[in-house]
Each structure stands twice: as structure tokens, then as C-alpha cells.
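Just wondering, can you check both lines?
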Amino acid sequence: MDWSTRLFRTALLAVANRPSLEAWAVKYGPKLGADRFIAGTTAAEALEQVARLNGQGIAATLDYLGESVLEPDRAEESRQAYIGLLAAIDERRLDANVSLKPSQMGLAIREELALNNIRCIVQEGKRRGLFVRIDMENTPYTDATIRLVRQLHAEGLANVGAVIQAYLRRSEADVMSLTEAGINLRLVKGAYKEPAALAYPAMSDVNESLRRLIRMRLDSGVYTAVATHDDAIIDWTCEYAKRRGIASDRFEFQMLYGIRTPLQQSLARLGYRVRCYVPFGERWYPYFVRRLAERPANLWFVLKNGMRG
């Protein structure tokens, strides 16, 4: 990552949680093309997109957008929304699971509150035979998030998994520990603003870290999601699995809704398990800004739409 790209990314991430900019974005974002990356504001809209993806041989994970909740009532509302979402997936027999953010469930208020809310969702998922992914947020939440997943797993809720961000210097130790516990992981590069003392600033180091983590997981045999749009990482993963005789049903590729859609379709046709991360809801602004920060091409798409408007 050169200095100009790094500066661009840092500037965007700095405005991801600005309420004034969020209000502007909610009003004008869809006209600029933000809806390319968001599957709607309602569950019904998102479920229709999941059905469309399933028709192309692509699975989904649904994310009801929202984070940094500071009121217990809002955390409870999110819990109920996810329980309803699991019911809808089950009733429609969709090839999908759900992803949620711990701070949406009250982690910023009290860890026990988040644990209780998430436990209800994971229990409902287990009852319906559905998986629940606990997303990883920025580093103030890392230890608590891992504790939550470990606690639920220890309670016999094996249908819960975590996310590990390759740009964090601690991630190799976390992957080793979570793999020993047999916990399903999604591996990502990472999309939050973090200090260099905690995260690799150079993309070459992040890429090498991600390869190490993928290698560890594929060799372990514990099911793993490789979440990337990077052709080099995808090709490397396919080649490594083939060389080591690792069956394609022991891992999956995950990509974001609205990004590299032809690649998702191509991998699915080749027989790989592909899952699309499908976000929806009215609180889409922080998620959207992180997507722009990850790939300058995403910002160019939005700007082009704005110029056409």
C-alpha cells in the first residue's frame, strides 16, 4: 500500500462514525450508488437478494447493520431482529446464515449483556440448524469478542464462529488458540483504523499474514472461510489446497455483496463453496465507508454515479 493510498484510507476511516456525515449519506447515498453495496433497508429486501444469489449457486450470510449501541433497548431490538431473520431463512429454506457485531448486541454497554443477547440468537440458530458468525470489530473489542465466542462454544453451541483480522499482529496466536478449540473462523485482511503498534501498516505484510493464517487453518482441517477479493490470495489458496489434497468442502470463499460478482459466480461454477456477505438495514453508513476505504475503485464507482446524476 503506497503512502497516498494509505492516506486515502486513513481519511475515510476517520469519518466512518461522524453522525453529521451519516445523515447526509443516508439522504444522498442511494442516488450516488451506495445501494450497490447494501441489499436494502429491510429484511424482506435482503432475503430476496439471498434467494437470487442462491439461484446462482452462491450461499449468503446476512448482516443486519448496526454497531456501537449504547442503549440496552436497542441491543434487544437487534437481538429480536436476528431471531426473526433466522426464522425467515429457515422458513424459506435459503442457503444462508447470519453475521452480527458484538457492539450491536450491547458489548459497549456491558459484556454480560452482549453475551446474553448473542446466546439467545445462537441458541435459536442451533434449534433451526443455522450458523451464527460473530464479526470482529476494532481492537477495543477484540479480547471480549473472542471470550464471547469461546464461552458460547464451551456451552455446546458449536454453531457459532469468529472472525480474525490478518492485519493485527496478534492474529497468528489467536488463530492457533481458536483452532485448538475447533472453532470455525472467517479470515479477513481487516478494515478498521488501527495504530502501527497493533496492526501491520504495509499491505505486503498483511497479505503474508493472511497466507500464514490460511495455511494454518487448511492444514488443521477445521472449517474456514477465506474472505477476500484478492485474486492472488484466492489463486494461492486454491493451489495450496490442491497441492495438500485438501477437499474443497473443508473451506469456503467469502466476498461482499456488490463486489467482484463475476468472480463469485466463476468460483461457484468451478465447484468452490462461495458465500456472499449481504448487509442490509438503515444503519449502513459506517459499513459503507469501510468498503470505500478498502478499495479506491469502490469510491470511483460512487463518484461516477454521482456525476451521471
Notes: The radius of gyration is 18 Å. Strands lie at 59-64, 96-100, 132-134, 160-165, 185-188, 224-227, 251-256, 274-280. The first helix runs from residue 3 to 14.
